[in-house]
Amino acid sequence: MSFPLTPPPPHLLPSSAAFTRRSLLLSTSLSTINPPPSSPPDTTVTDRIFMDFSICPAYNKPDRTVSDTVATLCTEMFPLGRLILGLYGHLVPTTVSNFKSMVNSYSYKNTLVHKVLHRQFFLAERQGRMEVGKVRPLADLPRNVEVVDPKAFRLANSTRCSRCSVG
């Protein structure tokens, strides 16, 4: 059984001004390459905190015992200077809130720091070994899920918990 083919209406016939399938496909694939520009992130510094750094010459003594604390080891500290950090409260409000609460509660006091690089970052070690009772694990803190510029500060928890992640 065959059906007669009817020609398409004249307004659907290809013309020189009409798009072909290939040009339509090309134009749709090119349109996905350049997404519309998004608004830049709000990197306004909303808060500033400071940390004072010192050197403790006796902290790494080889005859140190587990019961020694920073207060007993570091009777003489030599001040190095103050580090002022600008916090991006509009970009990562949860992280800024967590960090400010940790700074205000002196959670970072007597933390061993390895390196401070001007206008970049500072690298610190964990507060101590959990198996000998040198560190209290932090409560599960809410984290921001936004992707932040690598130069921005990151709050990391050195303990294992259900919701902990860096960044």
TrEMBL record:
Chain ranges of the PPIase cyclophilin-type domain: 80-119
Identification of the protein by name: PPIase cyclophilin-type domain-containing protein
InterPro entries hit by this protein: Cyclophilin-like_dom_sf, Cyclophilin-type_PPIase_dom, CYP28-like
GO MF annotation terms: peptidyl-prolyl cis-trans isomerase activity
Superkingdom of source: Eukaryota
SUPFAM superfamilies listed in its UniProt record: Cyclophilin-like
Pfam families reported for this sequence: Pro_isomerase (PF00160)
GO cellular component: chloroplast
